[in-house]
Write a structure and sequence with these properties.
The chain is α+β, with helices and mostly antiparallel strands and about 325 residues long. The protein contains 15 helices and six strands. It folds into two domains: about 25-95, no CATH class; about 145-335, no CATH class. It has helices at about 35-40, 45-50, 75-80, 90-95, 115-120, 145-160, 165-185, 200-210, 220-225, 240-255, 260, 265-285, 290-305, 310-320, 325-335, and strands spanning about 1-5, 55, 60, 95-100, 105-110, 125-130. Helix 6 (about 145-160) runs antiparallel to helix 7 (about 165-185).
């Protein structure tokens, strides 16, 4: 089996106790059945602690929503007591993500993680492949459609990497590739044919974010403050343009090929462009000038969108149906810059 990842994936390392936004806080942590069975059999005082801390297949969070095994040093007691191979699957994998397409497996490190975000925004985007001999083919899909999507994705990567085009031109090209692909596969997906005025569409993007289910209680007040500054924000700093191109490639890599299962090419591409429009404005409002300034903002955005299934469903639905997010409206927002 081929295992394909961005090159920065191999350099990802959890920073554990040095993390300022631990993934062991504020999340419901589900335990897979195999690990749950192992925990049920652990002997001694630690085994008793394990069983007291689990209910209905999840860890019982503390009053401040911390995993009960996250100690004061920011380290995991299960890891230190039982070993890294005894973590439940979600703890072992996160923030890594994987997708299987027959004999091809793709994966990466998710943007919602502080350490991963630093890698994503600071490294030029490139892919690498290795053989994964211990894995077997998984999942059924249309091989012809998959090949077409791979080709479309390569075109999008090329557009995002083409510095002869402005970033806004690159993103318009990405939208055009997606629209052409959607027509080509004869699987139409909703796209409102109306165009909203650019300032209305930009305001609509931030209004949509404010309507989503918040993961962090600080997020919505932050978005409300930024919304007030939308049209008095600075021009884009040249130092953030490479970051935005890398983030665009991250979103396209992670989501486009999923369309092989449902044909939703355009909605996933719109999500990538929508995300860059939002992040570009947030970077301007915060006065970001370099990759290191951008990582935390991108991480928080990812946490509130990518890592809530209900929020992603709402985003993809609204991107397909609202006039503020039609292809022409998104291009209008890009023309504002």
């Amino acid at each position: 089996m081929i295992f394909r990842t961005p090159t920065y994936y191999r350099d990802f390392r959890c920073i554990a106790g040095d993390c300022r936004d631990s993934c062991c806080k504020g999340w419901e942590i589900d335990i897979d059945k195999e690990t749950a069975a192992y925990y049920a059999a652990v002997e001694g005082a630690f085994g008793d602690r394990l069983r007291r801390s689990i209910r209905d297949g999840s860890f019982l969070l503390t009053e401040d929503e911390r995993c009960p095994f996250l100690n004061k040093s920011g380290l995991c007691d299960i890891y230190t007591e039982l070993g890294c191979d005894k973590l439940c699957r979600i703890c072992s994998d996160h923030p890594r993500y994987y997708e299987w397409f027959g004999s091809v497996k793709e994966g990466g490190a998710g943007l919602c993680c502080e350490a991963a975000a630093e890698l994503i925004v600071s490294r030029p985007f490139a892919l690498c492949e290795v053989e994964a001999p211990d894995e077997t083919a998984s999942g059924e899909y249309d091989e012809e459609l998959f090949s077409m999507l791979i080709g479309a994705r390569e075109e999008m990567f090329a557009a995002l990497a083409d510095e002869k085009l402005s970033l806004n031109e690159s993103l318009c090209r990405v939208l055009d590739i997606a629209a052409e692909m959607q027509l080509c596969i004869d699987m139409p997906f909703p796209d409102c044919k109306e165009e909203a005025p650019a300032d209305e569409a930009l305001h609509g993007a931030f209004a949509l974010l404010s309507e989503l289910e918040p993961i962090d209680e600080k997020w919505q007040p932050y978005i409300a403050q930024c919304t007030e500054k939308l049209f008095c924000s600075r021009d884009r700093n040249s130092g953030t343009e490479p970051v935005l191109r890398r983030l665009g490639s991250y979103f396209i890599f992670r989501y486009l090929l999923k369309a092989v299962f449902d044909g939703e090419v355009l909605s996933r591409t719109k999500f990538a462009v929508f995300s860059l429009i939002v992040l570009d404005r947030l970077f301007r409002i915060q006065g970001c000038s370099a990759a290191s300034d951008c990582a935390g903002i991108a991480k928080n955005y990812s946490k509130e969108t990518e890592y809530c299934e209900e929020n992603m469903e709402e985003l993809l639905f609204r991107l397909g149906n609202d006039r503020e997010f039609s292809i022409s409206s998104l291009k209008g927002i890009l023309a504002l810059s």
